[in-house]
Amino acid sequence: MAKTKYYFNSQTLKYEKVKLSLKVKILKAIGFISTAMVFSFVIIAMAYAFLDSPKEKQLKREIDQLSLQYDILQGRMKKIDQVVQTLEDRDDNIYRVIFEAEPISKDIRNAGFGGINRYKNLENYDYGNLMIETTKKMDILSKQLYVQSKSYDELSKLVKSKEKMMASIPAIQPIDSRKLKSAISGFGYRIHPIYKIKKMHAGIDLSAPIGTPIYATGDGVVVSQGTERGYGNQIIINHGYGYSTKYAHMSRFKARRGQKVNRGDIIGYVGNTGASTGPHLHYEVYKNGKVVNPMNFFFNDLSPVEYQEMLELASTENQSFD
Predict the structure, then answer these.
(1) pLDDT of 280 strictly over 80
(2) Are 172 and 263 in contact (CB under 8 A)?
(3) DSSP secondary structure letter of residue 122
(4) Alpha-carbon gap, residue 200 to 178, rounded angstroms
């Protein structure tokens, strides 16, 4: 209950009640309401600035989850891109070389999407740049996979028309992978075991026990069989189509010069003859007279995982065995 206010009337020398006019009462009411509204606005503004509503908290959680999923998606797309790059590299430098087909040009593989802006409808979103970037990457990957798929269709037709050629290409390991030891010295510059300097290693050394069977890696004819300084007991097979293979440091022969062999036939056995520091097979592959990396041809009897493991072993810059 409001307190009654009095004032001292000097003329009547009495205390009299204060009577407010309607105008004053209205002005006081307006002032009170205005003050309350100002304070309310300030409190609400501070609450919006420093406190999150339940809906805002939920939206922030969803944004954090979307950001996490976006990062995961980017990581997966990066891995897929690496796989596609590997497929393209093997297609151009191995499969198309084998079948004597022209490699697919970079212009075709990396062709963009010309014409109108394909992503214009995404520009007005708050996270438009992220959406455009992701969509564009997916489009590029789709295009690359399409081109690669068409390339494999073309190679499939070449395989059917060149069955004899396929049987002649050196496409398996010369030693059973179950007999191989972990030690492998690959193609490229390696430390020579005797001279202790880096020299070009023209093949791949596969460590295995003496007497381990050595297999012809493709159909062909034995054009050389004998002993050569450095290589010891060796066999050279001419597979035709510009391919030949060399097998060195054998303990003994099974195939003879002039003999026709098929892929998988035993031609000799692992030894330690010639300039060798331990039992192993030194294996070389030639294409049109030029030495090439044998690892590029182990695609007939190795799974992708096995091939990757062997590639990592062969890529180590260690000391060769010969």
Answers:
(1) yes
(2) yes
(3) G
(4) 28
